[in-house]
Amino acid sequence: MEKITGLELSPRKIDYLKYLYQKDARIRTNEISEHFNVDPSTITKTITELSNSGYVDHIPYRGVKLTKMGKEYATFLIHRHRILSLMLKQHGLESEDACREASRFEGYVSKKAIDRICSSMGHPRMGVCGKIDHAYCDFGQ
Ligand SMILES: [Zn+2]
Ligand SMILES: [Zn+2]
């Protein structure tokens, strides 16, 4: 995919992509709407937008799953989440709070900033809520 800035998607879309990444299968849009407690018509609209920009493959009545590009992007999203939550934990937050707080603002932090922070933290392997994958890190900056 084209170079990621990290600022491509709204917080809501980020949540959906991360959810789909964790599911790792084609799921019904109903499932997303129930999980996030959002009206099904709103979900369909957002999923259609994600599909038009190439992040998900949506087949009406069969459901939605990530495309290759969507998976790559989700890998970045998870990386960003885990770096920011680890950073918050290192500054005194409990793990759960660190995760929750990071989820509130992570969508506004650029990949460039994350790559720098990750580098200055020494590319940590273990985050607050899982392993940290550095496949898309820009090393040596
Ligand atoms: Zn987390
Ligand atoms: Zn890294």
Instruction: Determine the N-to-C terminus distance.
Output: 21 Å
Helix content: 55-70%
In total, the number of strands is 2
Largest sheet: 2 strands, antiparallel
Q: CATH topology of the largest domain, anyone? A: Arc Repressor Mutant, subunit A
Structure class: mainly alpha
Succession of helices and strands: HHHEEHHH
Number of helices: 6
CATH classification, class level of the largest domain: Mainly Alpha
* Arrangement of strands in the largest sheet: 1-2
List the domain count as a whole number: 2
> Based on the structure, what is the oligomeric state of the protein chains?
single chain
Shape label: globular
Strand content: 5-15%
CATH homologous superfamily annotation of the largest domain: Winged helix-like DNA-binding domain superfamily/Winged helix DNA-binding domain
By CATH, the architecture of the largest domain is named Orthogonal Bundle
Bound molecules: zinc ion
Q: Please state the average pLDDT score.
A: 94
Describe this structure in words.
- The chain has 141 residues and is mostly helical.
- It has 2 domains: 56 residues, Winged helix-like DNA-binding domain superfamily/Winged helix DNA-binding domain (Arc Repressor Mutant, subunit A); 74 residues, Orthogonal Bundle (Arc Repressor Mutant, subunit A), CATH 1.10.10.10.
- 55% of the residues lie in helices and 6% in strands.
- It contains 6 helices and 2 strands, in the order αααββααα.
- It has a two-stranded antiparallel ribbon with strand order 1-2.
- Helix 4 crosses helix 5.
- The longest helix has 23 residues.
- The chain is globular, with a radius of gyration of 15 Å.
- The structure holds zinc ion (2 copies).
- The site of one zinc ion has 5 residues, from helix 4.
